[in-house]
Design goal:
4-stranded antiparallel β-sheet, alpha/beta, 515 residues, Alkaline Phosphatase, subunit A, 8-stranded mixed β-sheet
């Protein structure tokens, strides 16, 4: 290549792979559809860890969790070093102007650059107004009375709600605005790397008016419910359904509204990405810009009567992965080979002609995978460790999952059962395949030096994790720390119990994090 391409990285939070118009006729995503038509779509793209922080950790370092030691949200990310660079640090060293906008969910320091030259920061659970650029901007524009700028959490975590912000002040619009500002003021002597990172469609599902009316509940399809759906549950499903207030019964009307509002947040992101793509096109930079769209993980959204993430079922672990760059990806290509978020780093570096030798990457260049979908046998995943861990191996046809929490195996034949409605792990006729997938995954972990979950040639059996009997134990309260003093109502909340809007700090459950 004579020159390095610009790179626009669009990243969403908790977006299912089936929320793209070309794969879901209910969805209205003209911008994403255009990127699919003009680029390549990796239909079997999976997160290496189905929860926010470790997925992003594996993403930026290009390594599976057994190398990063980041397995859940309670684990810190490793430091950026010469031996363990991020794709941002390597691109910056190669002369890129690297800027990030929106939610990165870096830990333990949320505002860390980790290779960026600059950032516009936005996140969740803001402790102090000045720590978050979006919340600071809201306060400067007269919205200091809004305590839940990205939707009311806690008891309303899965209650669909119109945003308290108008569309122009919504977080998704703010992210696009900051990106356009960067593009207008950037150093044009250098190529740019721009990470455009959205908080949505992470719950609570809070699209702005009039986007909240884009999809109407009665026309929404109901979730996926196999006849034996509770046989798909593991420990973490019961935990999530509990602490997210979704274990007290199923209301189909609520689920339809939930899906409508979830879809609306995706469409609003699509619209705002369109503003950025239009800017690139009008400035003659579109054809020399690699655009990659993906997400950290998906969302159950009521499938299997479950909510949240943290497992390897397709609703949760299968993510959108679209790449538009005519020089390296043929237009309209659909690739069925297994792909992973760890492939994004080598893809960026290869396009930018940056040497990746010192990075010890687990992924492959997606352009090579698009040219030869059978070049790799499998991708892998791990969530948590010890008695709460789950492990996955995914090939083009088969998905095998072992859950240490329940000492259970799952096997899905994706050729005949792409919706994952039948667990074949113990089905006569599939036992040899279960054994082969188990042996291959155990052999891979042993080869990688990840022996903690192994006992010889088998899985280590742990005592099952405890689950509280009290139906109210572990319920989640999430109030922005900066707003808590303002929740006190004199004469009313003076004697309020912790977490009920009084002056006392909110106490959050300990058994969920696993730390």
């Amino acid at each position: 290549m004579d020159s390095k391409p610009n790179i626009l990285f669009v990243f969403t939070d908790q977006q299912r792979a089936d929320t793209i118009g070309v794969q879901n006729p209910v969805m209205r995503t003209p911008v994403t559809d255009r990127l699919c038509a003009e680029g390549a779509t990796l239909t079997q793209a999976y997160t290496p860890v189905p929860v926010c922080v470790p997925a992003r950790c594996s993403l930026i370092f290009g390594q599976y969790a057994h190398k990063t030691d980041c397995f859940d949200n309670g684990f810190p990310m490793p430091e950026v070093t010469q031996e363990r660079p991020t794709f941002m640090s390597l691109l910056t060293e190669a002369g890129y102007q690297a800027h990030g906008v929106g939610k990165m969910h870096f830990t333990p320091d949320r505002r860390a650059l980790r290779g960026f030259e600059s950032r516009d920061h936005s996140g969740e659970g803001v402790r102090n107004v000045g720590d978050d650029d979006y919340v600071s901007w809201l306060h400067q524009n007269g919205y200091d009375y809004v305590h839940d700028a990205n939707g009311v959490r806690g008891e309303m975590y899965y209650i669909p709600q119109p945003s308290q912000m108008p569309a122009w002040a919504h977080n998704s619009h703010w992210v696009a605005d900051r990106c356009l500002e960067f593009l207008g003021n950037r150093d044009r002597s250098r190529p740019f790397f721009l990470w455009t990172s959205f908080i949505d469609p992470h719950p609570p599902f809070a699209p702005p008016v009039p986007w909240n009316k884009l999809y109407r509940a009665p026309s929404m399809p109901l979730p996926k419910r196999p006849p034996d759906l509770h046989n798909f549950w593991i420990y973490v499903n019961r935990v999530q359904n509990r602490y997210k207030f979704r274990d007290a019964g199923i209301d189909d009307n609520l689920l339809r509204v939930m899906k409508a509002y979830y879809y609306a947040t995706v469409s609003f992101i699509d619209y705002n990405v369109g503003r950025i793509v239009k800017c690139l096109q009008e400035n003659g930079e579109l054809e020399n810009t690699l655009i990659l769209w993906s997400s950290d993980h998906g969302e159950y959204l009521g499938d299997y009567d479950c909510f949240g993430k943290r497992t390897f079922l397709g609703s949760v672990a299968n993510v959108p992965l679209i790449v538009r760059y005519p020089e390296r990806f043929r237009a309209g290509l659909r690739v069925g080979g297994p792909a992973s978020l760890v492939d994004i780093m080598p893809t960026f570096l290869a396009a930018a002609n940056v040497d990746a030798e010192k990075a010890d990457l687990d992924g492959v260049d997606l352009a090579e995978l698009a040219a030869d979908p059978d070049m790799r046998e499998a991708v892998y995943g791990q969530y948590q460790r010890g008695n709460k861990a789950s492990y996955m191996a995914l090939t083009r046809r088969w998905k095998y999952v072992y859950c240490a929490s329940d000492n259970r195996e799952f096997l899905f034949d994706l050729l005949v059962d792409p919706e994952e409605m039948r667990n074949r792990a113990e089905t006569l006729g599939y036992l040899d395949r279960t054994r082969a997938m188990r042996n291959d995954l155990i052999a891979y972990l042993r080869q990688e030096g990840c022996t903690e979950p192994l006992d010889g040639d088998s899985w280590r059996v742990y005592p099952p994790p405890e689950f509280p009997r009290d139906p109210d134990a572990g319920l989640l309260f999430q109030d922005a720390p900066w707003s808590r003093p303002h929740m006190h109502i004199p004469g009313y909340s003076d004697d309020a119990a912790p977490g009920e809007g009084g002056r006392s700090p909110v106490v959050v459950r300990a058994f969920v994090s696993g730390r």
